[in-house]
Amino acid sequence: MASKYSCVVDVSAPNTSHSIAVRMLGANQRVLELGAAAGDVTRVLVERGCDVTAVEYDPDNRADLEAVAQQVIIGDLNDPDLLDSLTGQFDAVLAGDVLEHLIDPDAVLRRVARLLAPGGQVVISLPNIAHIDVRLSLLQGRFDYRPTGLLDRTHLRFFTRKTVDELVDGAGLTIIEMRKVRVPAFYTEFQVDRNSVPQSLVEEILKDPDAETYQFVFTAVRKNGDLSTQQLAQRYTELLENYDRLIEQHALAQHKLALLEASGILRYTAKPRRVYHRLRDAVSGK
Fold this sequence. Notes:
With 286 residues, this protein is an alpha/beta fold. The chain contains 11 helices and 7 strands. The chain has 2 domains: 17-223, Rossmann fold (3-Layer(aba) Sandwich); 228-286. The longest helix has 37 residues, at 227-263.
């Protein structure tokens, strides 16, 4: 049965939470998948050699999941007995856009952390409530729930980068890789009118490096008690985020340059630019 969260999972796609999470998980893993829905991600994981135990709330998805998963558990993750009853250990736990739907995601994450095998990892994606479009909507007095998206009407908890870090730390985990799904300002489901807000306000909000982050997708592992190792992991994550930001800025600059070249402006300004360069060289004595 089709789920409202059904999707096509293209592992090569660079900017979707599902593809990023699948790449983080790797292949040939024992995976506990929380909130598996109709099994779109489950199917891809199995194709990559993973043994998947799928946990899903909606019983209507059982048949689809049983067709692909090694084991299917229908139940409510808000029930602490559900995870406590699981036996064995997992190389990875996947919580893709599910923790925000739970009453106490902190407690759930602490429970799944105990199910990790040595060297195991948790891969999580969470929506960013501090996206610029949400902020601008709030300034206009709107906080409208929707069937899906950042304000999915079944969301019970909301996360920013700060509260993501607090959630992970509280579960005894540390983030070792952070990726972000980016959606530019004015391009989300909120359809904020660009002309309805001052440009100076937009520029101020965009000073936040996560203002256009739509989802956080990250890998976390259990803390080993070694402070220096945790600090190295944090520094690596920061450098990786900076690298991703530079790549994004470079791509944007290339796009703007391509638009400029296509407009013909450079052709019409070629002669004035040559005159400018000659005058500059003359003034500098070159």
